[in-house]
Amino acid sequence: MTYDLLIALLGFAFVTSVTPGPNNMMLLASGVNFGFRRTVPHMLGISVGHSLMVFLVGLGIASVFRAWPPALTVLKVASVAYMLWLAWKIAHAGAPGEGRNAARPMTFLQAAAFQWVNPKAWAMALGAVSAYVPEPSVWAYASVALVFSAVNLPSVSVWAGAGQAVRRWLEGPGRLRAFNWTMAVLLVLSLWPVVTMEL
């Protein structure tokens, strides 16, 4: 990978990682509800899960959708269903420690698996391997995945940190409930790319 291409990829990875999307909306909500430290597994799951996705998309997993178009419909339905369920969980989350219905942060594996139903993650992965891999090879796809991993983790941590920063202001149950409902609505609105997604 040339120096110029690496700089361009770093910029692409940063902009796509730090801008709003399902991952960052959930990290903001997690930072508010659980604090930065308890959100670290969620952040690591996003970074590792998405990097693995970039690598596998480069190796050809996206060709499955081109070869069998109904698979894309299945992905869209799964994405919408799962994200609506997550939005409902966020909207109805009790404060941490509130009995049986107490909210819990997303685990590393849950966050990693979520990338496969996240339309923005698909767009990022497809954009990266199609625009920044001049000569396809396992090493080239691994390099792009590593760049994404290095840039993604600090980028998404900004959202968890922002949540932590406003946590004290949202300590009242009414404010926290309003915040969680707002995050749930924003997560639902982020579903629009799923409807128009093409691979």
Compressed to H and E, one letter per element, the order equals HHHHHHHH
Q: Distance N terminus to C terminus?
A: 25 Å
Number of helices: 8
Residue share in β-strands? under 5%
Could you describe the 3D structure shown?
This protein is mostly helical. 77% of the residues lie in helices and 0% in strands. The chain has one domain (3-196). It has eight helices and no strands. The longest helix is centred in the N-terminal third of the chain and has 46 residues, at 22-67. The chain is globular and about 55 Å long. 38% of the residues are buried.
Features:
199 residues, mainly alpha, single chain, globular, 8 helices
Q: What's this, in brief?
A:
The protein has helices spanning 3-18, 22-67, 70-91, 108-114, 119-131, 138-165, 173-189, 192-196. With 199 residues, the protein is mainly alpha-helical.
Strand-helix topology:
Blueprint: H1 3-18, H2 22-67, H3 70-91, H4 108-114, H5 119-131, H6 138-165, H7 173-189, H8 192-196
